[in-house]
């Protein structure tokens, strides 16, 4: 018999609808039941692609004996962290305060008011390896709640006060300047893994935001060391098991330090950020390998993670048939069965597949030698790669979480727009347009964003990350297409975001809207995790919008937030890399370029192509066919600007100073370089 979760749309919650646990979704009904029945709340938070979430579900939530204890002693609430990042942030912080660490599945025990008093992550079904068994934890927590109620409530109040203090504390502002970038670059380099690339040891996570920051350092300081760190990391990640050598796209992380054996789940947000970084790497270096990885990753998303209407799905599981990585691993015999002995031996040698294996007797495929990274992509290997992909498609497919999240879609929108610009791809521009239109059609209610869409239903008020990531993607889409409607929408959303999320008292943004559900504390975070913080992205987007529209509200708010977190970013660059991109943009110099001319004309396209070919991270470009154009009303840089002799004309400006208009592409580029040097 199904429980209440059968009425939900989240694939993660639906995975638990047949549990014998009497689950509630997060709701007023659940909190009321806790009060009325005088039972504490057991809050379980996870997500559909989480391996250990599946393990705990099988061991405990599907176990009738454990479920009976849960039902007798607790009101049990199951939450999809991807649907409710606010609850996840709030209670993850409480678990970290209680235990010193966090993770998923997350298990937190609450009072009927939602105040946490005990928690942890995964619990085994019985005592194991120094960890208490879940039934023992359940009995112990329930006994404490009923027999030592005053102490439990006092502890819950104290922890809640600590949470509120953490989220509400005001940081002293720091002035913005190039020294922040220099200090941050030096501190980031201290954590670089010179042997394997990336930052830190095992488990090894991709760090696309830190890599993009290294690009900015290279551009600003001419630092070959910064570019070398970025390139070596990009090479090792894409040649290793972190990258799906058969189907394209990146897994979540590797359990080792050498990028070989991944945790096999695939997340939309990882692939969005990494695709954009590889496209930028190609723009900087002209290295074809980086272009290939960007294209393969985006093509994987279009093929396997895109709805017919243009929305992007969230995740693919790590497990199939109860085994992690079974879908992706190969033996030489399996490769030979698909390709034949001769071609099979060739591919096994190229991709490091051996009889002994590198993963539970099988092989995670990798490109062993750097000189072979484009060999696998040569035309004579196309049919072999396709055969492996088709054969793998006959295996049991990993589960897919097909809900569409506005925030993660904003990240992927940015990736497609970036690639459309850098790689001059109309296909990717169309994918970005389709996604923006999907969100505009399905995830807006009364002018405000909603967070999640599944099975025709949009729900949950938008969070800061929804606004920030989408605005950022729309600004990038304007930069790729110069279609003014995307920028107009971005500016409108930006004003709404400031109204709903900005805290003038601390010069920072809350994660939840003023009009959203009231929780025990209103979470606020500027620290990047697997996804960038909403504070970081909204600052970069507002700064870009300020340069384009000259809206002082955007500039003032962004500057205030950046000054709030600048000192922390300089000291902890790996956790504030996306904020450092915003600081780099705010510090400048930033050049505005207006191109006036028929967008379909050869001379206009030549100017645009010249900009497309160069890595210019602190440049704002606007175009218009002439003075009487919709874009002129929004973009001051286009006003009172016409063509010279009827030819496409560029106006290069920095600050309050503009150089002479020019029809010549080389002169335009020289003016840009000169403006950057002078400022």
What's the helix and strand layout?
Blueprint: H1 11-14, E1 23-24, H2 28-37, E2 41-46, H3 51-61, H4 64-73, E3 75-80, H5 85-99, E4 106-110, E5 116-120, H6 134-147, H7 149-168, H8 178-189, H9 208-221, H10 224-239, E6 253-254, E7 262-263, E8 266-267, H11 268-285, H12 288-304, E9 315-316, E10 319-320, E11 323-324, H13 332-339, H14 341-350, H15 382-392, E12 400-401, E13 404-405, H16 406-422, H17 426-442, E14 444-445, E15 448-454, E16 457-461, H18 464-481, H19 484-501, E17 502-503, E18 508-509, H20 534-549, H21 552-571, H22 577-587, E19 591-596, H23 602-612, E20 619-624, H24 630-634, E21 649-654, E22 657-658, H25 665-678
Parallel strand pairs: 1-3, 2-3, 19-20
Antiparallel strand pairs: 2-4, 4-5, 6-7, 8-9, 9-12, 10-11, 13-15, 14-15, 15-16, 17-18, 19-21, 21-22
Helix pairs in contact: 4-6, 6-7, 8-9, 8-21, 8-22, 9-10, 9-11, 9-22, 11-12, 11-16, 13-14, 16-17, 16-18, 17-18, 18-19, 18-20, 19-20, 20-21, 20-22, 21-22
Q: Kindly report how far apart the N and C termini lie.
A: 69 Å
Q: Return the structural class.
A: alpha+beta
Give the count of structural domains.
Answer: 3
Q: Helix count? A: 25
State the shape: globular
Q: In the CATH hierarchy, what is the architecture of the largest domain at level 2?
A: Alpha/alpha barrel
Number of strands: 22
CA radius of gyration is 26 Å
In the CATH scheme, the class of the largest domain would be: Mainly Alpha
Unreliable residue runs: none
Mean pLDDT: 95
CATH fold category name of the largest domain: Glycosyltransferase
Biggest sheet architecture: 5 strands, mixed
How helix-rich are the residues, as a percent range?
Answer: 40-55%
Note the beta-strand portion: 5-15%
What is the strand arrangement across the widest sheet? 1-3-2-4-5
């Amino acid at each position: 018999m199904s429980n209440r979760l059968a009425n939900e749309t989240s694939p993660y919650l639906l995975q638990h609808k047949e549990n014998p646990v009497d689950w509630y979704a997060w709701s007023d009904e659940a909190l009321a039941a806790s009060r009325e029945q005088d039972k504490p709340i057991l809050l379980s938070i996870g997500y559909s692609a989480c391996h250990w979430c599946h393990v705990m579900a099988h061991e405990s939530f599907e176990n009738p004996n454990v479920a009976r204890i849960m039902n007798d002693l607790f009101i049990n609430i199951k939450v999809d962290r991807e649907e409710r990042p606010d609850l996840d942030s709030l209670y993850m912080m409480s678990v970290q305060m209680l235990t010193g660490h966090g993770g998923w599945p997350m298990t937190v025990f609450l009072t009927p008011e939602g105040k946490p008093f005990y928690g942890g992550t995964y619990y085994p079904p019985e005592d194991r390896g120094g960890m208490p068994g879940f039934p023992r934890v359940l009995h112990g927590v329930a006994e404490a709640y009923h027999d030592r109620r005053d102490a439990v409530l006092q502890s819950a109040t104290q922890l809640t006060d600590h949470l509120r203090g953490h989220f509400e504390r005001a940081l002293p502002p720091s002035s913005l300047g190039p020294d922040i970038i220099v200090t941050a670059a030096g501190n980031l380099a201290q954590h670089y893994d010179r042997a394997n690339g990336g930052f830190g040891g095992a488990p090894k996570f991709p760090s696309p935001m830190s890599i993009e920051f290294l690009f900015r350092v290279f551009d600003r300081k001419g630092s070959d060391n910064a570019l070398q760190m970025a390139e070596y990391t990009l090479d090792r990640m894409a040649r290793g098991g972190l990258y799906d050598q058969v189907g394209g796209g990146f897994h979540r992380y590797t359990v080792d330090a050498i990028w070989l054996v991944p945790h096999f789940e695939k997340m939309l947000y990882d692939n969005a950020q990494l695709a954009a970084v590889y496209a930028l790497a190609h723009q900087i270096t002209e290295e074809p390998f980086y272009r290939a990885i960007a294209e393969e990753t985006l093509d994987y998303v279009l093929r396997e993670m895109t709805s017919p209407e243009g929305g992007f799905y969230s995740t693919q599981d790590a497990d199939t048939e109860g085994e992690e990585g079974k879908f992706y691993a190969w033996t030489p015999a399996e490769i030979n069965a698909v390709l034949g002995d001769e071609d099979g031996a060739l591919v096994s040698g190229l991709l490091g597949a051996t009889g002994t294996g590198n993963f539970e007797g099988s092989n995670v495929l990798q490109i062993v030698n750097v000189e072979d990274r484009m060999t696998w992509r040569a035309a004579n290997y196309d049919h072999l790669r396709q055969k492996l992909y088709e054969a793998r498609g006959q295996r049991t497919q990993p589960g897919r979480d097909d809900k569409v999240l506005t925030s993660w879609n904003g990240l992927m929108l940015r990736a497609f727009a970036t690639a459309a610009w850098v790689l001059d791809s109309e296909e990717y521009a169309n994918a970005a347009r389709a996604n923006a239109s999907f969100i505009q059609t399905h995830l807006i209610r009364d002018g405000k964003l909603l967070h999640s869409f599944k099975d025709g239903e949009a729900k949950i008020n938008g969070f800061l990350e929804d606004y920030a990531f989408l605005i950022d993607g729309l600004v990038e889409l304007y930069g790729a297409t110069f279609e003014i409607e995307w920028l107009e929408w971005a500016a409108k959303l930006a004003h709404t975001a400031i109204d709903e999320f900005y805290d003038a008292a601390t010069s920072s943004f809350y994660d939840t809207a003023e009009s959203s559900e009231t929780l025990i504390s209103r979470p606020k975070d500027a620290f990047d995790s697997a996804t960038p913080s909403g504070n970081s992205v909204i600052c970069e987007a507002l700064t870009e919008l300020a340069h384009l529209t000259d809206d002082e509200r955007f500039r003032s708010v962004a500057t205030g937030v950046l000054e709030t977190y600048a000192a922390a970013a300089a000291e902890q660059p790996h956790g504030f890399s996306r904020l450092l991109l915003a600081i780099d943009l705010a510090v400048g110099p930033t050049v505005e370029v207006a191109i006036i001319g028929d967008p379909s004309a050869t001379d206009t396209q030549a100017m645009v192509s010249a900009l497309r070919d160069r890595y210019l991270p602190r440049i704002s470009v606007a175009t218009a066919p002439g003075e009487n154009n919709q874009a002129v009303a929004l973009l001051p840089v286009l006003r009172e600007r016409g063509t010279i002799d009827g030819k496409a004309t560029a106006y290069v400006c920095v600050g309050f100073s503009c150089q002479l208009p020019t029809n010549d592409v080389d002169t335009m580029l020289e003016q840009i370089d000169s403006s950057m040097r002078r400022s």
